[in-house]
Amino acid sequence: MMKEMTYKKEEAFLSPYAQKSRATRGRLKDEAPCSMRTEFQRDRDRIIYSKAFLRLKNKTQVFFAPDGDHYMSRLTHTLDVSQIARSLARCLSLNEDLTEAIALGHDLGHTPFGHVGERVLNQLCPTGFQHSAQSLRVVDLLEKEGKGLNLTVEVRDGILNHTKKGNPATLEGVAVSLADRIAYINHDIEDAIRAGFLHEDELPKSAVKVFGRDTSARINTAIRDIYEESKGKPYVRMSKEKRDALDELRSFMFERVYEQANKLIQESAERMLCALYTYYLEKPTELPMLYLETAKTDASRAVCDYLSTMTDKYAVNLFKRLFVPREGSV
């Protein structure tokens, strides 16, 4: 069987610190195995064909409704993370299937309007809101009309722990967490330059000296550094020099780009999401059927589940339908 061939290849070629497919800790609910695909390959396929994954193409990364076709969306960011993470997994002899599944699923719970939307929902929801935890709710509870995707423990762990504060249980999960930071810092620099928020010459000179002047050079430098630092080791990490330089770039982007870009949509996004949140909190029976059961015990969480699934366009159109008088209406 093809799956058995994959198992043998993993035993022969993967690092002793890699997560082998045969050794998965399984799923929340037992189900019959596939004769051709490993469990991590099945997880990857389930994520790709999920509705939440399809919606990522219409969710903001940084710039809302940009005037141009070449800005990053949440979907293109996800693909970028997957590519970088797989490159790391390949050069470190980690499990590429597990790495890819985590990368493709890591942002499934992200809100409309990027991190502005996340910030607003976190302020509105009494129990708080984080996109990493919401991504886990998506794959566990919201996909497939409430049945969930029933992913493996390893993929679920990687999704939940992909942020900088997370602590993934597998090296594949660590690779995705690093890839996420490498990806968003570098492609957000490109988008910010394209949008006129900054000029290439404004980037911190010390970080440019370490990583290089263009996106390709910076990503190659990061991957090479992680490889040299982690090859044959029971960890995946950057050298201190590169880590400090990446943190410097990240801090620079927060100060010069993210906060400025957020200000452009903060007021309108907050107004829309607050109005929608209040409307459905007062009228939970008008939520789609998928969220009604949760609304019986935690209406706030049910409303946040619904709002976080929305694309930018869907949220705007719903706001207009509920609150903006239509022409000819009485």
Name of the top-level CATH class of the domain at 40-264: Mainly Alpha
Largest sheet: none
SS class: mainly alpha
Q: Report, as a whole number of angstroms, the end-to-end distance.
A: 67 Å
Uncertain spans: none
How would you sum up this structure in a few lines?
The chain has helices spanning 2-13, 39-48, 51-55, 74-91, 96-105, 114-124, 131-142, 153-160, 171-195, 205-211, 215-230, 240-282, 292-297, 299-309, 312-323. Helices cover 62% and strands 0% of the residues. The model has no long low-confidence stretch (mean pLDDT 93).
Indicate the topology.
Layout: H1 2-13, H2 39-48, H3 51-55, H4 74-91, H5 96-105, H6 114-124, H7 131-142, H8 153-160, H9 171-195, H10 205-211, H11 215-230, H12 240-282, H13 292-297, H14 299-309, H15 312-323
Helix pairs in contact: 2-5, 4-5, 4-9, 4-11, 5-8, 5-9, 6-12, 6-14, 8-9, 9-11, 9-12, 10-12, 12-14, 12-15
